[in-house]
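Re-running the complex after MR caught last week's input typo. The corrected sequence lines follow. Everything else is unchanged.
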Amino acid sequence: MSDGPATILRVRFGETDAAGVANNAVYLQYFEIGRIELLRKRGHSYADVHGSGIDLIVAEAGVRYLRPLWFDDEVAIHVHMTDLSRASFTFAYELFRGDELCATGFTRHACVQRPSMRPVRVPEWLIAAVSE
Amino acid sequence: MSDGPATILRVRFGETDAAGVANNAVYLQYFEIGRIELLRKRGHSYADVHGSGIDLIVAEAGVRYLRPLWFDDEVAIHVHMTDLSRASFTFAYELFRGDELCATGFTRHACVQRPSMRPVRVPEWLIAAVSE
Amino acid sequence: MSDGPATILRVRFGETDAAGVANNAVYLQYFEIGRIELLRKRGHSYADVHGSGIDLIVAEAGVRYLRPLWFDDEVAIHVHMTDLSRASFTFAYELFRGDELCATGFTRHACVQRPSMRPVRVPEWLIAAVSE
Amino acid sequence: MSDGPATILRVRFGETDAAGVANNAVYLQYFEIGRIELLRKRGHSYADVHGSGIDLIVAEAGVRYLRPLWFDDEVAIHVHMTDLSRASFTFAYELFRGDELCATGFTRHACVQRPSMRPVRVPEWLIAAVSE
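Corrected-run output:
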């Protein structure tokens, strides 16, 4: 899957911490924004996922912090799929400030039935959406 | 209503911002923690509120920032009710670091029916709980 | 001061809470984003403020929650100044989803010297910037 | 290093998201709280680290989400060191709700000089503190 245009955001003041840089937990929020925007570009809102009675859960996540992000930095979030099975799929992320790669990471996702939270197969339409 | 023992928390590193102090938005989270703990002390979990098919919404909030809160400061949250009608109720908050008053504020609440979000009367059990 | 074009953002999934709507504390972050963007439009980065050895603090804040904001809602933040003195200034905010007014609020600001955090006059360049 | 008593916290309402559970990004905040408390138990405040002209940065982080955490769940954060060199050290985390293991993870840290953010050796006193 090519990831198309990146999602652009700016580091918010409230996302920095007393060390003067974006707090390490914020990166997982950036990843979440990136994958939701990817779904939107594929023609699916995250609401579609919920509406279908399932939930996408994050089963695993990882971040490598290469360069600090500062308040007001413009950050480009690139997302692409790296792995897809019937039970789960994985996104890889790259955060760029200009042409500097500042962080990389991944999230692995599974589908669960609501409200039991039991694992179910990733639906075909979602597989199609994310693997385009 | 006497507010009983205060809720104690520490300013988290992730709650500070690049100015080195607790970000202004965090105070509303502290207020939320304070009122939820107050309900708990009255024998009601916030889940009780949801379970009864209604939701407590915040209709209005205000904060006065008197002294900055720093990372790792131990903060005591005092909550008491200042106003109660059938349609809404108001909590007042005081945040202390030791005996320094660092912030004051209030939140005014109304009840809504789920999922329509239409206003309903505050239930008697909730009035009793918060006005003890 | 006319507030020029509004700042547009989307309610992030991580900004919602278990009630399904944007958490009440998030609004103060939206206000912060709005006023920082206003400064930027006036030709000043927030870094300029810090660089000049002073800090802009929030002395008081208030929010009126009129309609809930849901995940993925596109929100327009309008900001304009309502009050200006040598010691402080006040911004008023309006959050719109389409043409629905969903929240209003204000923040009152003072300037302090770093690192003593003692109040100082609002510098002329900042008065000029925000009162344009 | 034995990790001594766990740090206990409750899932805050504002930490949940519209899926009804603690948002995936919050876990990195829990880890941060856990390691700061560990330092405190070893007799060092995080302020000591800063005061010494260095900063502890997060170079890498990972989380495995095993069971969802719900609003108001009481969570025990266990932290212990798994790796230590002159250039970096690694903490491992386990989040328990009662005796259910709900998440595991790690963070790898390096030291940098402020404000250049260039890597430096982990100081002896910090090595001693975390490896007790």
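None of the earlier attempt is carried over here. The helical segments of chain D are 26-41, 46-51, 124-131. Chain D has a mean pLDDT of 89.
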